[in-house]
């Protein structure tokens, strides 16, 4: 089995995929998690920015702004990976 760096494209939408491995005794289990599309990451970024605009606490506002930047960065990386895979 090989794990590719490029996210799979499902009906024109790029998704990020994460595989988690867990050992219990002599058994190894894995869980495949299909994450968000680029659009969903962009929506989460916009939601975090809107929420940050309504928060008065500077520390909380900064955390939300950081989350928005992180979501946009994940969307950018997913778009770039998808473009390389085409």
Secondary structure elements and pairings:
Layout: E1 9-10, E2 13-24, E3 27-37, H1 38-53, H2 58-85
Antiparallel strand pairs: 1-2, 2-3
Helix pairs in contact: 1-2
Helical content class: 40-55%
In what order do the strands lie side by side in the largest sheet? Answer: 1-2-3
- Biggest sheet features: 3 strands, antiparallel
Low-confidence stretches: 7-12
Count up the domains.
Answer: 1
Morphology call: flat
Distance from first to last alpha carbon: 22 Å
Topology as a string of helices (H) and strands (E): EEEHH
Number of helices: 2
Q: Structural class given helices, strands, pairing? A: alpha+beta
Number of strands: 3
Keywords, separated by commas or semicolons:
86 residues; alpha+beta; 3-stranded antiparallel sheet; flat
Report on the structure:
By secondary structure, the protein is an alpha+beta fold. It has one domain (9-85). It has helices at 38-53, 58-85, and strands at 9-10, 13-24, 27-37. Strands 1-2-3 form a 3-stranded antiparallel beta sheet. A hairpin with a 2-residue loop joins β2 (13-24) and β3. α1 runs antiparallel to α2 (58-85). The longest helix has 28 residues, at 58-85. The chain is flat, with a radius of gyration of 17 Å. Residues 7-12 have low confidence and may be disordered.
């Amino acid at each position: 089995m090989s794990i590719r760096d490029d996210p799979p494209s499902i009906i024109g939408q790029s998704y990020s995929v994460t595989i988690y491995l867990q050992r219990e005794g002599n058994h190894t289990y894995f869980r495949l998690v299909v994450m968000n599309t680029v659009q969903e990451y962009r929506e989460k970024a916009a939601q975090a920015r809107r929420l940050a605009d309504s928060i008065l606490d500077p520390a909380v506002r900064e955390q939300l702004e950081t989350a928005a930047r992180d979501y946009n960065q994940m969307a950018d990386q997913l778009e770039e990976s998808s473009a390389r895979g085409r």
